[in-house]
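Task card 7
Instruction: Convert sequence to structure tokens.
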Amino acid sequence: MLWLLLIMGSATAFSTNYPKVFGDDWTSAAQFVNEHHAAWKPLFEEFGVDAHLAEAIIFPELIRYSKWQDEIETAAVNGLYIQKGTKGANFSIGRFQMKPSFAEEVEAAWNQSALAKEYGFVFNLQPNAEARRSRIRRLSSMQGQCRYLAIFVRLQFLRHPQLLQLELREQVGMLATIYNHSFSTTWEQACHLRHQKSFHTDIIATRHTPKYCYADIAQAFIAP
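Output:
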């Protein structure tokens, strides 16, 4: 059943011309990746992650990124999150649109994995302002977001060894689904959500808002 779903998904991904659908937004996002690929590549490779795979996972976020909205959300997170944690604020920030709760999950899973010993560092998970301030500092930098993304990918390969059985394009589809949904998404949930159409670029979605599959967009970007 899994393989059937993946095959069906591949057909769906290429039935929509996403560069045409998103027009200038797609072009701008692709240009942003091209301009930063050389700087990002060593950050991903530091953790043994294919840069093209990582870039495809977050490409839909680059399409709908809004600098104005990000500045507002970052300011709110800087104040309320540092003081009260995710109960105070948990907005997505930065180009890759990462939430503090996402960073917390990644850090906790990293600390409990063999990778922490292999790489020789752990994250400060204390529930205090100092740890939260450091976390926001990491999330607010491009370098920090790249490292969170790379660690996310490595941890997902540990959580879901089934990924190793997939070709690169299908790995992108499943990892993009998990990234868009939740770090703790199970394999069964990811398979179920893989073709869900919930991605949009409107500030506020209405019943007229076109919605697309996040994973299909990610796959379309990495397509040769």
